[in-house]
Amino acid sequence: MAWPRPNHLAVGRGHRMAWRDLGNPLGEPWLVLHGGPGSGAQPGLVAPLDRRWQRAIVPDQRGSGASQPRGATRGNHTAALVADLEALRERLGLPSWAVLAGSWGTVLALAYARQHPQRVQRLVLRGAFALSEREVAGLLLPGRARLKNLGEDPLWPARHRTPLPVVLRRLTQLLQSGTPGVAALRVARRWGVLEAALAEQGLWRSLHHAQRSGAVALAQAIHASWAALRRRLQRAQAQARRPQHLPADRAALAKFRVQAHYLRHRGFLRPGELDRAVLAVAEAGVPVDWVHGRCDAVCPPANSRRWAARWGRLSEPLSGHLGQEPDMLSTLRNVVAGEAC
Questions:
Q1: Residue 166 contacts by C-beta under 8 Å, 6 or more apart in sequence?
Q2: Domain of 30: which CATH number?
Q3: Could you say which of 247, 266, 285 is where a domain stops?
Q4: C-alpha to C-alpha distance for 106 and 34, rounded to whole angstroms
């Protein structure tokens, strides 16, 4: 799929938000929100949409992707991201749009829908993130089994039983450097390895379940996805300790600088804020579809199950966390098309 050059919208405090417009310009408009935070948009995000009949508006959140300045944390918080989305809607002259979001993007989608329910036709939320200590610690403080497979890095500022706030403070300090040294490079690379390892774990679980259930075609498709992610993880591990700068380092430093900033501040949301957002969306009557992989090792399926019990429909494909996994993508396409799963 051709991935167009982004447009840019000045949104204040020196930030210029990048956004792309794909699909049928007269079709059903969908706002597509990436995860991360800090990751930026990529072509796979729009795969659930049928671009013959639907229009995808895909922004890079502040400090992410092609937005400028990349990796910037000043003036970068959830309320600002919500305001940016509303400014983009007004710029496009759309009365409302549907929202497709994954992982961290579900947090932003709920915050936006809570503040602007009249502008949201429906929500499709994949792999909902609850900003819980369990989720964040599961990524940043790997247990002994994962360390045995991945190996340790003495420069990673996290040890078993280190308090999570301390870990996040150390990561933020290392990654904020304008001229990153060896420690910052190693930390960004290590974070990428840990992230890929969790995603690979979810895919491996779903492959195991598909094989046990006798779903041969699905197992073959999952195996192909798992093998590709496994190769990517092995490359990341091999590159993690190289002393020289690598082409991917700049993007990784920017991504994880923004991510550390948001995680340290718990997404700039008060305790219980996501629960209140779900309730507000329910009271406003905004339709919600929760789609969560049964084998998700990044964000526990209990997140979506708990919120779906309050409002909306729940689909649980045989997949991990990633939106491009075979059963996840098939389910998302059905949900976006309005078909029951």
A1: none
A2: 3.40.50.1820
A3: 266
A4: 9
Residue pointed to by tokens 């993880």: 233
What percentage of the chain carries pLDDT values higher than 70?
Answer: 98
The whole-number pLDDT of residue 321 equals 98
Same domain flag for 128 and 272? yes
Q: Are 240 and 74 in contact (CB under 8 A)?
A: no
pLDDT tens across 84-95, in order? 999 999 999 999
Contacts of 83 (CB under 8 A, 6+ apart): 11
Q: Which of 157, 129, 120 is nearest to 141 (CA)?
A: 157
Average of pLDDT values for 248-259? 95
Q: Structural domain of residue 309, as residue ranges?
A: 7-133+268-336
pTM, full prediction: 0.96
CA distances to 18, 23, 33, 215, 331 from 294, in Å? 33, 31, 22, 15, 12
Q: Are residues 221 and 283 in the same domain?
A: no
Q: Taking a C-beta distance cutoff of 8 angstroms, is the pair 67, 61 a contact?
A: yes
Residue 200 counted as domain residue: yes
Q: What is the DSSP string of 251-304?
A: HHHHHHHHHHHHHHTGGG--TTHHHHHHHHHHHHT--EEEE--TT-SSS-THHH
The answer as to whether 2 is a domain residue is no
Cis peptide before 48 (omega within 30 of 0): no
* pLDDT tens-place string over residues 115-128: 999 999 999 999 99
Q: Is residue 62 in some structural domain?
A: yes
pLDDT digits (tens, 9 = 90+) for 23-76: 999 999 999 999 999 999 999 999 999 999 999 999 999 999 999 999 999 999
Residue-by-residue DSSP string for 175-204:
HT-SS--HHHHHHHHHHHHHHHHHHHHHHH
Residue 178 has a pLDDT of 63
Residue 139 included in any domain: no
Q: Is 14 exposed, middle or buried (0-12, 13-18, 19+ CB in 10 A)?
A: exposed
Burial bucket for residue 338 (CB in 10 Å: 0-12, 13-18, 19+): exposed
